[in-house]
Amino acid sequence: MEDLKHLGLLMIGILVAFTVVMTMVAYTVLAERRVLGFIQGRLGPNRVGPGGFLQPLADLLKFIFKEDIIPDKSTRFIYFLAPIIATTAALMTMVVYPFGPDVNLPVIGTIRLVIARFDVALLYVLGVTSVGVYGIALAGWSSNNKYSLMGGLRSAAQMISYELALGLGLIGVVLQSGTLDLYSIVEQQAGHLGISGWNMIWVQPLGFIIYLIAAIAETNRVPFDLPEAETELVAGFHTEYSAMKFALFFLAEYVNMFTVSMLATTLFLGGWNGPFVHQLPWLGVFYFLGKVILFLFLYIWLRGTLPRFRFDQLMSFGWKYLVPAAIINIVLTATLQWLGAFDYVARFLKTSTGWGG
Amino acid sequence: MQALLFILFAGLAIGCAISMVAQRNPLYSAISLIGVFIALACLYVTLAAPFIAAVQVIVYAGAIMVLVVFVIMLLNVEEPERQPMRLRSLVPIAVMLAAVLFAEAVFIIYFVQASPATPTRNVSDVGLTRSIGEGLFTTYLLPFEITSILLLMAIVGAMTLARTSGLLSSRAAVVPGDQVFAKEMLDRQKYVDLLTPVTAHSTEEAKRLLGVEDQDQSPKP
Question: Which residues are within 8 A (CB) of B37 and not within 5 positions of it... i.e. 6 or more apart?
Fold first, then answer.
């Protein structure tokens, strides 16, 4: 009976998290088009529904009813498999993020707003992300199109290179908090008003910057969107994809954006910590999603502002600057940890006070 | 529940393994191998070793197999026609090795059943990241360091091997900004020493210095 209740709660949790994230992803697409519009001095989509509010629905309908074209000489099985891998890998990381602190519900009692809490959550995220590369690489290969192949190869090379910087950038946080469990990492970041304990500000500024840059590259976004550089490669790895299969790649890209933003929030911006979370636990969820939205806005902003890197610039930046910087960060963090500097900082910043912290 | 999961993932692993050997397209084989690795990782999770599972996915499925897939994609191997089997002499050895493997499996099953597992001490923290880390940096420090040095040597070795011949074949020369030429195309009287780079401000100048004859007479756009 207890097991069944646990399983039921788990299913409901997955459903709720999935719905919330998917809705937010859909509206990220709309927000991106609107904000880009404003950056470029035009209006963006505003015809469907009040202020363009129903645009995501219209887009979805369009994707469903479009003709599904499959290239004649494609490797059929892999061609179908690739978007599935991309989307599944993108969605799978969602289960480990703590959306909020423990909350009380009227009938069920206290629940924890994280679907699966386990010892190696951070490694799980990195592992699943690394499997996501196959979606893009295989899509490029199976389409039997030179532009797709170039896009697939580029993206595989780019994602392998930046995954390294991404992982190394995170090691600083792990060293400092002594755990790979995301829930504990968030808990450790409580401080005065739930703000002063954030890893980003005091203890891992370099790690934060490295992670942010590497994460943008991992999600193939401007200025690192080489895999789909339309001036050179038509549309890169998804040139030959249409209708729902294209929609899946599109979805995977935005879900990836969302999950790397969630990871950044969890590790560097204190997760659900914020003023008065201890009195009103549900506030935590809004803080968490609000911080994620900040990152998503940053993505859109960058897209509206920056031009694209050249491929050799991308590679040399990743290997010659980002990876060494990450290694320096690790050495620095380890040294400071060994000298006890973080304990000293923590005594001032991370002890929670009565008011709100 | 546990048994169900075991059957599911073990079945997946065996199915993917068979598919890996049986496929003729190398990319399908590689994908099957990824499937095997992921199924094994799931089995590790059910065996209460989440760290090993995560590392299995990151290292094998995420890093090594990406390189394999990458190479297969680059080479774009044609589907080979059904050929008569080469290396017929290896068949008896393969049969023998298979027999040894099978015997090992039988041996293990027999002895496990003969002496049921003794509970390990302090089960709760075995397989957790902390216990693995502590083990690696205290009890097993020497093997750990030796492995690191071995890996470092492998990296340096790979770099050295890749660098001796350079990126280009030794029979090719590059004109900056233009293209790669076979050395036969160069004028041997004008440019004898092929190891010294030439300094030039334009492609045309470089071509002149290297003595490349313009092969195509088509008008420049």
Answer: B56, B57, B60, B61, B65
Distance of alpha carbon B77 from alpha carbon A23, whole angstroms: 42
Span B27-33, average pLDDT: 88
Instruction: Answer whether residue B221 shows pLDDT above 50.
Output: no
Instruction: Nearest by CB to B50, from A118, A138, A163: name it.
Output: A118
Tens of pLDDT, residues A37-90: 888 888 888 888 787 888 888 888 888 888 888 787 777 888 888 899 888 988
Q: Which amino acid is at A148?
A: S
Does B60 contact chain A (CB < 8 Å)?
no
Helix (H, G, I), strand (E, B) or coil at B175: strand
pTM summary value: 0.79
Q: Is B87 left (phi over 0), alpha (psi -120 to 50) or beta?
A: left
CB nearest to B57's CB, from A127, A152, A153? A127
ipTM > 0.85 (yes/no)? no
Residue B6 tokens, joined = 């075991």
Question: What is the Cβ-side half-sphere exposure of residue B130, based on CA atoms within 13 angstroms?
Answer: 9
Contacts of A118 in chain B (CB under 8 A): 50
Q: Judge: B51–A130 Cβ closer than 8 Å, yes or no.
A: no
**What three-state secondary structure class fits B177?**
coil
Strands (E), B73-219: 172-175, 179-182
- Give the pLDDT confidence of A100-138 residue by residue, as tens digits: 887 777 777 777 777 877 788 888 888 888 888 888 888
